[in-house]
Amino acid sequence: MAVSARPDTDEVVAAPTSIFAPGLRSASVGAAGLIALFALEYIAVTAAMPTVATALDGYALYNLAFGATVAASVVGMVVGGWWSDRGGPRPVVVAGSFLFAAGLVVAGLAPTMEVLVLGRALQGLGSGLSIVAVYVVIAQRIPDHLRPAVFSLLAAAWVVPGLAGPLLTGLVVEHLSWRWVFLGVAPFVLLSLLLFRRALRATEAGAESPYLRPATIAWAVAAALSVGVLNLAGERIEGVEWAVGGVAVVLLVMAGLRLLPSGTLLLRRGLPSVVGVRAALGGSFVAAEAYLPLMLRDEHGYSPAQAGAVLAAASVAWASGSWVQGRLPATADRYRVMLLGVVVFTVLMSLMGLTVWGGGPGWLVIALYGLSTFGVGLAYPTTTLLTMRLSPEAEIGRNSSALAVGEALSSAVGLAVAGVVFGLYYATQPHAAFVGTMAVAVGVGALSVLSAARARTPEPRGPGLRGAVGVGPDA
Q1: Helix (H, G, I), strand (E, B), or coil: what is residue 100?
Q2: Does domain 18-211 bear CATH number 1.20.1250.20?
């Protein structure tokens, strides 16, 4: 059993060895519960949206029903990070959860597609606030040596909805109504808050943290609007759409310079490169995942259920990678774990791209993509752990926000670029369109290797915390 000393005495006490130990259980279970609900709603809405759009005669706003959620979440992430540092994560989690639940009710009762889009925006704002604040709760309540295990639990909270969500959604839509896809989740948000309440009560505010500046909010809104534009026009590449898309990308880059740690776009060593790893991973697998099911349907004759196997395989492999990193010893070099994960991901993604280019069998595409996300499972939670280790206590919220915002912005750009490539070729050369989208995904993924290779900071000289529980040689 690990040991540590109380800060005000020489008495040696036992350190907790499980994330379900008394005092830690509420943080672990509460965080997993909220993340599972966010994941379930994301997956359920994706499956139910064709039915929703038909019922509300809203195909013209189909993409915006997804884009509004992503765009609003960017604002929520920025505000949530700064608010958590200033006032503590408790009010942020509570406010975000209630906004998310309100969005579910608005969407579930929506008489028109416009109202449904409003509800989806509220869901994005609420989830953006809550997700960042959940990371701050983990940083405050879970010892460093147990955080990898918590991140494994959060990965599992995504996988279970990924496997059961589509079937559950189909049953609800078929036997009840699409409205219960939204309304049925809202009560469970309150239940998750009840499970989380003890951990939230024990969190602390950072009174010395700076207030959120109006300019920061303005850039967050600019980024959100740009994300919305790219989601609307990702595959529309005629006439003025080129100019509009170009302006949106420029605004995203400018927003990134102000919302992300200084030097992130230049992959400066330390925290900026860790944020760069997370951003590149997010942009890469989102760009690939958007078109792989369609490719399997068009080129291999897979049914929608069979094509969806690529998503299930990816979910299981991701959770497996996260499970492995969660069981590494506390002294494991987390920079090496992150680098190994992105190398596995990029190499296997490259092999998958070559398989698509060469017309290889669909089962091999699914297998290679699934195995590649094992690397994401290793690297993704490690970026969160390193961000916490590299952040002063008063800036954990802001830096966790930057981690999530960087991923959201890169995903928007990756999807936009892949959409342009797809739109240019799909009508006349569909195979070239799919090869092009995979090339975009592989290219963005390669940036994660470069960023991970630059992430390590020089080790401090002299006495430090190397003997403390959970602090390894890379801390």
Answers
A1: helix
A2: yes
Q: Write out 224-261 in H/E/C secondary structure.
A: HHHHHHHHHHCCCCCCHHHHHHHHHHHHHHHHHHHHCC
Task: Record the tokens describing residue 170, joined without a space.
Answer: 């189909």
Rounded distance, CA 60 to CA 254, Å? 30
With contact defined as beta carbons under 8 Å apart, do 26 and 198 qualify? yes
Element of type H or E holding 14:
strand 12-14
CA distances from 308 to 46, 100, 263, 290, 354 (A): 12, 27, 38, 11, 21
Q: Look at residue 54 in the predicted model and tell me its pLDDT.
A: 80
CATH 1.10.8.60 fits 264-458, yes or no: no
The predicted-structure confidence for 287-335, as pLDDT tens digits, reads as follows 887 778 778 878 888 776 666 667 777 778 888 888 888 888 878 888 8
**Distance, CA of 242 to CA of 250 (rounded, Å):** 12
Q: What are the beta bridge partners of residue 4? A: 13
Which has the closest alpha carbon to 218: 207, 210, 226, 230? 226
pLDDT digits (tens, 9 = 90+) for 361-385: 988 988 898 889 899 889 988 898 8
Beta bridge partners of 248: none
Cα gap 103→117, rounded to integer Å: 9
Cβ neighbours of 195 (radius 10 Å)? 18
| Dihedral of the alpha carbons of 234, 407, 439, 263, in degrees to the nearest 10 | 110
CA-CA-CA-CA torsion for 114, 170, 129, 131, nearest 10 degrees?
-160
- What stretches of 56-143 show up as alpha helix (H) in DSSP? 62-87, 89-108, 113-141
Mean pLDDT for the stretch of residues 198-212:
68
Nearest to 67 by CA among 264, 221, 224: 224
Is it the case that residue 471 has pLDDT exceeding 50? no
Which pLDDT does position 6 carry in this prediction?
Answer: 43
Judge whether 162 and 311 are in contact, CB under 8 Å: yes
Asked whether 123 and 69 are in contact (CB, 8 A), the reply is yes
